[in-house]
Fold this sequence. Notes:
Layout: H1 2-19, H2 24-33, H3 35-44, H4 48-67, E1 70-73, E2 76-79
Amino acid sequence: MAIILLALLAAFIAWRARQLGYSAVAWFVTTFLAPLVAIGMLGILPDRSARKKRQRETDLLEAQLAQAGAVVTDGVQVPRETVSDLRTIRN
């Protein structure tokens, strides 16, 4: 019975690790060897899949800014025209 519970726990931990961007097989084996350590470690490790998603979104945003004519200054995207460059209308 304990082996079945451990296998279910290992399967859950492996599934969650895969969602976070880690190897499911490695976490399945780790959970069998040291279940409490695996649970603790998975809880404190960063979410790799979120980091990859943020990088994709950053790349997309940089491409959109480049397409809009933004200029890179010291690694910061700055539009060619700013609000102060726009004409104002006075009555």
